[in-house]
């Protein structure tokens, strides 16, 4: 029976890992294209999810400001928008955000040291966090785009019949795995087999060199930030469905960091494999060792696991080995 | 130019600062950050009650009350900064809604001689007024809550919990660990097995804990959570089909914010509370007339009647009553912080007084003295009805097991007195 319990923990760890990977993917995309660690990725997920709920519920953006400025009491347009259409509208808003980021921030920082760009993304995170609150309010929002939640009775019955113990697998996690697989396949295909994808990788290698061969830095950055915005939206939907759309959603970025360290900052499959290893490792450690050391080991153990991998592969499992010649 | 700027700046400061004749009750609130959704509702209730007193009664004893807000983001350092920034404005009392900030402020308020009011949170042993002269935590503290929850379970099981399994899912912080000692003592007394399951904050990922609950099949789960940890735990409980009626949250795991994201799955979930909830109290007629309709409610009054709004309002009620008592004792409306401490220590909010305030049966009787800063510790349970979208009170106010709690409070407060070099008073 102990083995079956451990197997259930392992399966759930893999599923949790997929959820971490969804966040990590956004970081990888931007890092691949610009060499920038986008500190704002978690906040982008929050902003996207807040905007999605706002659109679905027909909320008036900036209602508090409008009410305070004009002495009115507006909060809703009085309509609701179907989930799929609202997702499309939110994706468009994320494209708009990408354009604004390129025009107002990145354009002015071409050729700067990566640390300068990193600092700019910290500023962006603070700005987006405030903008989201002002636009949609700080309340916890319920997000329901029709994704199922709760125990998968099919898995429970099947495992019970085969093994004598019904496994718990959350249906939301199964959906997350399917969506993540589709997303990764699309992103890998895009970056390997399309002209824009190859241009994206060229920009990542060297801004100036990419410019000299006629690649439009402006277009590539807008494209990449738009895709990262869409990935953030997907992560926001998954995590927001799980525990409501609220500020804490931005902190899921902390879960993505060990995944990136382990999988490598430049590999899309690495984000997935890294997520699976972290998810599986932290859950099994908690199961076997947690109770001996007071529990709640998952947060720190994920980083320990990533550091152990870094000792042997500093570039991460799938990261590109950087050799700088003097 | 510099002179002009300085004049403008001075004008702005003077406009923002409370008028010198007013009574100042700073509102150390948090409307941003991971716990902003909770802090916002509480802060609104706190502000609105004082606005009601100002608008309807002209303040307390003829003195208007100012509640300058300072954003802490539930961050201890920022909370201390807010305290330092506002204490010079004639602050009478602080209510920071954070156990972490409370722990940092206890030595500061003791040195500055300003009361700290922490209903349902903070340092539990501050109930001992002999040691904690400036801290008050009536009507109930964490340990009271733990004991009342166990008393309720005893009632549900014919007075016998022997052999039962109870799991405690808690926020892995000073706050979340507060009830452990009490529950351990109660488990010895009543013979139940206690399993402790910490969740690292913020608590969005709790699969391990709930898989363990699914395997161990405890009879009951208690929760000491805050913020996103609550919604995630209730969702996970629903996911594993844990019977919601056997899942009890503490005061801070029982608001609308915690259950609504889970939808129908949260139906039947229970939580502790030390006050009433909802709009069925006469006070809301006055609130509507003097605060909401004239557009003076904090944030337009969108959370009026919610659990956390009610709690913020209740904290303001107790502070306002303490101010009135202090004015009566001092013979002046312009009281200072020391006189307010005397007001707290002589406070007696009887059921009749609560009814006069438009809040019949809203809270237990609060009677504080020099040595008892925690009141009776009475709390009650509420249950969530997902289809109606509201909490219903399901028990009367219940007294905690003082036989177990009193020695624990004495032990903890005496240890603090020794550490801080405090000679017990009263």
Automatic annotation (TrEMBL), chain A:
One of its GO terms (molecular function) is transmembrane transporter activity. GO terms for biological process: amino acid transport. It is a multi-pass membrane protein. It holds the Pfam family BPD_transp_2. The chain crosses the membrane at residues 9-30, 36-55, 85-106, 115-138, 174-194, 215-239, 259-280, 287-312. Belongs to the binding-protein-dependent transport system permease family. LivHM subfamily. This is Amino acid/amide ABC transporter membrane protein 1 (HAAT family). It comes from Paracoccus versutus.
Automatic annotation (TrEMBL), chain B:
Residues 25-387 form the Leucine-binding protein domain. Keywords: Signal. SUPFAM superfamilies: Periplasmic binding protein-like I. The keyword Signal applies. Pfam families: Peripla_BP_6. Residues 1-21 form the signal peptide. Belongs to the leucine-binding protein family. PANTHER family: BLR6548 PROTEIN. This is Amino acid/amide ABC transporter substrate-binding protein (HAAT family).
